[in-house]
Amino acid sequence: MTGTLGELIVAALTFLLIHIIPSSVLRVRLVSKIGEKGYIVGFSFLSLVIIIWLVTAYRDAPVGDMLWNAGNTGRYLGILLMLIASILFVGGITSPNPTAIGAGKLIERESAYEGFNAITRHPLMWSFALWSITHVVNNGNVSAVIFFGTFGVLALAGTALIDAKKARQLEESWAGYKARTSNIPFAAILQDRATLSIKPLWWRILLGIVLYAVLFHFHNFVFGVSPAPY
To answer: DSSP assignment of 88-147, as one string?
Structure first.
């Protein structure tokens, strides 16, 4: 089964299933037996092993049938989506966010309602989703759709799973946070439930643009494929 699309599918499904555990009752049982730190260490190690397996399975799998060829249209779309993804990624890793692991207490701070958190409760997850969409569109073969699509499915499902887990953990505090924020980007702002402030955004946007420029410039060197339209 090694080096087949079957192995890639199994690895992808395993990767998805293992990430459902943190939002299930099984997590509670595991934490009660091995403790919070033990669970985080064990889960992180297991996730790393499985993602290495997934990447290896994708590398060794046959390309499979070509389902579509987006051509320059896909590349131009990818340029836009990856720019947004890079900005969201930087915003996600630099902004105080109550949805992060062990960061529930941040919900008491006003900064948890500002900047990228006003745009979406899950900037990091949405950055992964846009990255996935970009690569699915521009790599229309079966193996690429399975590989890159797996990350997109996990990212989008993860937003709902994280919300459900935080609702159980934080109860009334989460209800108040949810009322002033949104999962879908800009939804809370358009509904006048959140206010967009430039002050906590500008340097993160600038850093995101720099990250995008670096990724675009070195993509061909690192991955052997140029993202530029031809």
So the answer is: HHHHHHHS--TTSTT-GGGGGSGGGGSTHHHH-S-HHHHHHHHHHHHHHHH--BHHHHHH
- Please provide the distance, in angstroms rounded to a whole number, between the alpha carbons at the two ends of the chain: 37
H helix count then E strand count, the chain: 9, 0
Statement: residue 129 has pLDDT above 70: yes
Q: Which two tokens stand for residue 160?
A: 């709902």
- In 30-77, the DSSP E strands lie at none
The angle that helices 123-138 and 142-170 make with each other, rounded to 10 degrees, is 170
Q: Count Cα neighbours of 145 within 13 Å in the Cβ-side half-sphere.
A: 11
pTM over 0.90: yes
- In whole angstroms, give the CA distance from residue 113 to residue 109: 8
Domain ranges for the chain: 1-62, 66-223
Q: Say how far apart CA 188 and CA 186 lie, in whole Å.
A: 6
Q: Cα Rg for the chain, rounded, in angstroms?
A: 19
Determine the 3-state secondary structure of 66 from DSSP. Answer: strand
